[in-house]
Amino acid sequence: MQALPELGEEEFTLWRRLLEERTGIHLVPQQKAFLQSQLTIRTRELGNISFGQYYDSLHEGLASVVEWSTLVDRLVVKETSFFRHMPTFDFIRDYINQRIAAGSLADSFDVWSVGCATGEEPYTLAMIVNECFETAALDSYWGVTGMDISMPALNFARQGIYSRRKLDLVPPPFRERYFRDHDQLRSQIVPAMRERVCFTNGNVIELKKMPLVKMDIISCNNMLIYFRRWRRRKILNSLAERMKKGGILVIGLGEIVDWEHPLLEPVADDSVQAYVCVK
Ligand SMILES: C[S@@+](CC[C@H](N)C(=O)[O-])C[C@H]1O[C@@H](n2cnc3c(N)ncnc32)[C@H](O)[C@@H]1O
């Protein structure tokens, strides 16, 4: 077995800085071994180049953009599941039903899953919106956008094909309705739901580069934990600017503790962390 090339402390600092500057992700010292093994795998795939040569190659020319995207995919945590935190989705369902009952929905209902990984979260949101709209016999436009920095994750998400194991948390009536057998081991999201969800590549620390579309629901779960606290606040401030009045922002429980925004009011419910846009 070949020994792993050593990633020195200075080199580790350089790589951490690069990753944080470009993605916001802050690696802690304990993640050095993880970074070293990912760099080793990639530099071997590229013909055993050194970490230094690889670092330089990420700074020059068009090819560096493609290579950076490959590396980022290897470094991000893409762990996710359908209906990952049930209280959050119950809260979202109740919120949509309240808006419908109040007759306060505009012509289009727009949902954004920020850091959507392989698509389980945006598809879960789509199933919930669909149930609410159908029960209320509403036929106005609605759609879900999933955004992520990882291109391979988005390509996977667009197919909507998942191993049957991944469906364990999906409530049986949703499983019946929204999935079809794809082959012996996998199921696919039905076309009607795939048509409602679009996936786009984007970097949450560069939101200013993206068109300013206002949203009814912004869901940003299990991503902020990888960023420093000042950056979490900055990201949430930009998300707040993209909410429609009456819209909600939902984040993972405890992902930020001391953040407030003049446009938003926190929701008084201990089982979720959510904010309503009141202005
Ligand atoms: C742990 S997953 C969370 C998936 C889903 N939101 C959930 O709660 O199950 C975090 C995702 O955030 C994405 N991510 C990390 N940094 C990002 C950035 N700067 N811009 C956009 N997405 C990013 C990763 O690629 C990864 O897919």
Question: What would you say about this model in short?
Answer:
With 279 residues, the protein is an alpha/beta fold. The protein has helices spanning 9-23, 32-45, 51-57, 61-75, 86-102, 120-135, 151-159, 172-178, 191-194, 229-240, and strands spanning 108-114, 141-148, 161-163, 179-181, 186-189, 197-201, 215-220, 243-251, 264-266, 273-277.
Specify the CATH architecture of the largest domain. 3-Layer(aba) Sandwich
If helices are DSSP runs of H or I spanning 4 or more residues, what is the number of helices? 10
How many structural domains can be distinguished in the coordinates? Answer: 2
**Average pLDDT, to the nearest integer?**
96
The rounded distance between the terminal residues' Cα atoms is 61 Å
Question: What characterizes the major β-sheet?
Answer: 7 strands, mixed
Into which percent range does the helicity of residues fall?
40-55%
Description of the structure:
This protein has 10 helices and 10 strands. By secondary structure, the chain is of the alpha/beta class. The longest helix has 17 residues, at 86-102. The chain starts with 8 loop residues before the first helix and ends with a strand. Bound molecules: S-adenosylmethionine. The site of S-adenosylmethionine (SAM) has 23 residues, from loops.
List keywords for this structure.
279 residues; Rossmann fold; 7-stranded mixed β-sheet; 3-stranded antiparallel β-sheet; 10 helices; binds S-adenosylmethionine
